[in-house]
Amino acid sequence: MRSRPENILLTFLIVINAVSIFGFATFGLHPELLSRWPWSVSIFAVSYPLFARLQILVAFASLAVALSSVSRWRWWVSFAVLFSLSAASELLGTTYGIPFGRYEYTEFLGPAILGRVPWLIPLSWFFMAVPSYRLAQLAVGEQSFAWLRVVVGSLLLLSWDITLDPAMSHLSPFWRWENPGAYYGIPARNLLGWFVTGLVLISVLESKFSRVWLSKVSSKFLVSFYLANLVLPVGMCVAAGLWLPVAITSGVAAALGFAIYLALRRELNVSFAKS
To answer: Which run of H or E residues covers position 268?
Structure first.
């Protein structure tokens, strides 16, 4: 059977993540290896920012292909809204410290909006908000209260940042905090900012217009996509021995899986009862 394009891209994403984790676990954590093999210095210098950008671009491409295959252009409006809202949130954060606290991006993620927020960042907000919302639907049921789906979706989005921020700002220099906090140098305010921003983004996906095209996307694909994007930050934290974020994110993923299992079991029992 021929593989779908989005699944091919998703496989490529997993390969990129695996190579990135290997590079971090070897040369990133043990820079003395670079002096042992001088030829590796230039390769590492190029691949370090390249793989970070590739990870975001390939992840977005995979989701974009999946969405386009079932809804054509209908997801573009929601994408434009989420891109704009997340970019505005990041610009407020990097300029005024609202809502995340003050921080700045380094040059590793490429060209930036107004010289402050890399263009790739709003893409990542979008491609993680979509599966977070769909997983919330699966976990609490599509017939549940709208506010409950929004809250759970925002928490799932936040669970990604629990490992992402330590991996990308504590273990790697992709962004820097002006006033470091107790959680691996990350201020507690950042977690609140992520949750609030998530509430706004997930609320857009909860709208009737967004739900029309979201309902057509394969749940199996979105579950795989969400987990594939956890691989890189979780893998980096494991390699560096940062077990607290690994435990929290893994716990959320396990609870999510159990909730989805119970929801699917309930649906199966209902269908049997009706038959």
So the answer is: helix 243-274
